[in-house]
């Protein structure tokens, strides 16, 4: 899955994306409920979390000011995500946590026009045969307001599992 960037008080502090913050609690809780993680939380890099059939990456590699990366930061960091994907040729689904991640994933494997729109549970097959699957980002802004519920998040990872075994 592809997120936005490490949070200043989460992944940037702990050294592992989505670890040690509320977005990570939400995300790892869902990964645990849907069978992708051995435990529902992650507090630090050595806490025993093991992902099964999943990998977490970020479109931007450092915590941006006000959690708002610039397009130039995304473009500068994109080669790292491209290299990670190249090292994992069996990846069949990229879950994009938010529109920024969706846009970054489309830049990794550009489709012909028209450009597919981001949305929660939006799906698109890339030229490589991989599938993009959209999810609202598990930020407090989305989870506290009910824009993203646990059921909605679980539905994304259940669908990712279905797409991966096709």
Task: Please tell me about this protein's structure.
Helices cover 37% and strands 10% of the residues. With 166 residues, it is an alpha/beta fold. The chain has a single domain (2-164), classed as Uracil-DNA Glycosylase, subunit E (3-Layer(aba) Sandwich). The strands form two sheets. It has a three-stranded mixed sheet with strand order 3-5-4, sandwiched between helices. A two-stranded parallel sheet has the order 1-2. Helix 2 (22-33) crosses helix 6. The two termini are 18 Å apart. The model has no long low-confidence stretch (mean pLDDT 89).
Task: Provide key terms for this protein.
single chain; about 170 residues; alpha/beta; Uracil-DNA Glycosylase, subunit E; three-stranded mixed beta sheet; two-stranded parallel sheet; about 35% helix
């Amino acid at each position: 899955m592809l997120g936005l960037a490490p949070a200043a008080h989460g992944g940037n502090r702990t050294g592992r994306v989505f670890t040690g913050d509320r977005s990570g609690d939400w995300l790892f809780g869902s990964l645990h409920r849907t069978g992708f993680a051995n435990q529902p939380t992650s507090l630090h890099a050595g806490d025993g979390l093991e992902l099964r059939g999943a990998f977490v990456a970020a479109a931007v590699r450092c915590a941006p000011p006000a959690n708002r990366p610039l397009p130039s930061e995304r473009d500068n960091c994109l080669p790292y995500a491209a290299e990670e994907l190249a090292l994992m040729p069996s990846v069949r689904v990229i879950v994009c946590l938010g529109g920024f991640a969706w846009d970054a994933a489309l830049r990794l494997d550009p489709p012909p026009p028209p450009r597919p729109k981001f949305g929660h549970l939006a799906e698109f097959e890339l030229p490589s045969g991989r599938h993009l699957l959209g999810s609202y980002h598990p930020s407090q802004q989305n989870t506290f307001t009910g824009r993203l519920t646990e059921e909605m998040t679980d539905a994304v990872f259940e669908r990712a599992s279905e797409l991966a075994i096709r």
